[in-house]
Design goal:
Blueprint (H helix, E strand, L loop, with lengths): L14 H13 L22 H27 L1 H10 L9 H16 L2 H4 L4 H11 L4 H14 L9 H14 L11 H9 L6 H8 L8
Helix pairs in contact: 3-4, 3-8, 3-9, 4-7, 4-8, 4-9, 6-7, 7-8
C-alpha cells in the first residue's frame, strides 16, 4: 500500500472557494420557495340564483292576491256595515218602525241580489225570500212574521219590536250575500245606504232607477 509521502502537506483550498460555499448554502432558504397564502375573493350576492328569483316572485304574487282578497272582502261587506250602522238609528219610538225595518231590508237586498228578482217581491213572497237566504232561527222567523203583520196594521204593536229588530239585524249580519252579482257595485251601495229611509215605495223606485218596488 502506498504510503503518503512524508514531509508533504495536503493540498489546501484557496481562500475564495472556501468562503463561497457556506454563503450559497445560507442563501438557499427553503421557506423562500413558498408562495404567499391566497385568500379567495368574497362571494357576491349578485346576480341572484334562480331559486331566489322564484322565491321573490312567489312572495310578490302572494302579497298581491292577499291584498286583493282583503280589499274585495272589505268592499263586499261595505253595504252590510252601512246597513247595520243605520239599523241602530231605528227604535220603538220611530213613528213607523216596521216600515223603516222593512225598507232597510229591501235596500240591502237590492244591493246584493239582482233587482229583477228582488224589487217585485212583497208580502209573503218577500219574507219567504228573506228566510230562505239565511239560516234563520225560531226567533228570527217569528220576528219576520211579526214584521209582516205590523206592516198592515193601522196601530203598531210595539211589543213585537225586539223580535222584529232582531230578525232584521240577524238577516243583515248573517246572510251570505253573493259576490258575483253584476249589480253589486260599490258606488251603488254607498249611495243607496247613505240615503235617508223612506216609507214611500216610490222613493225606493226612484233611487234604484228600476221597476217599481212593492214593499211588503
Amino acid at each position: 500500500m502506498q504510503q503518503p509521502m512524508q514531509g508533504t502537506n495536503p493540498p489546501q483550498i484557496s481562500g475564495p472557494m472556501n468562503n463561497t460555499m457556506p454563503n450559497n448554502v445560507t442563501q438557499q432558504d427553503p421557506l423562500a420557495q413558498l408562495r404567499d397564502i391566497h385568500v379567495p375573493d368574497d362571494v357576491s350576492a349578485w346576480p341572484l340564483d334562480w331559486g331566489w328569483w322564484c322565491l321573490i316572485v312567489f312572495i310578490i304574487a302572494a302579497l298581491f292576491f292577499t291584498t286583493r282578497a282583503v280589499y274585495r272582502h272589505i268592499q263586499h261587506n261595505k253595504a252590510r256595515k252601512c246597513a247595520l250602522q243605520e239599523l241602530k238609528t231605528v227604535s220603538m219610538n220611530n213613528e213607523n218602525w216596521p216600515q223603516s225595518l222593512n225598507t232597510l231590508l229591501k235596500r240591502v237586498a237590492l244591493s246584493y241580489y239582482p233587482q229583477n228578482e228582488v224589487a217585485s217581491l212583497h208580502g209573503e213572497a218577500w219574507f219567504t225570500f228573506l228566510k230562505n237566504q239565511c239560516s234563520s232561527n225560531d226567533r228570527a222567523n217569528n220576528g219576520f212574521d211579526s214584521l209582516e203583520q205590523n206592516l198592515y196594521r193601522q196601530e203598531t204593536n210595539n211589543s213585537a219590536f225586539d223580535d222584529c229588530f232582531y230578525a232584521t239585524e240577524h238577516w243583515i249580519s248573517k246572510t251570505a250575500f253573493p259576490k258575483n252579482n253584476k249589480h253589486h257595485l260599490i258606488q251603488m251601495k254607498g249611495a243607496l245606504l247613505r240615503e235617508p229611509q223612506s216609507s214611500d215605495t216610490t222613493s225606493i223606485v226612484n233611487r234604484q232607477g228600476n221597476s217599481e218596488v212593492n214593499n211588503a
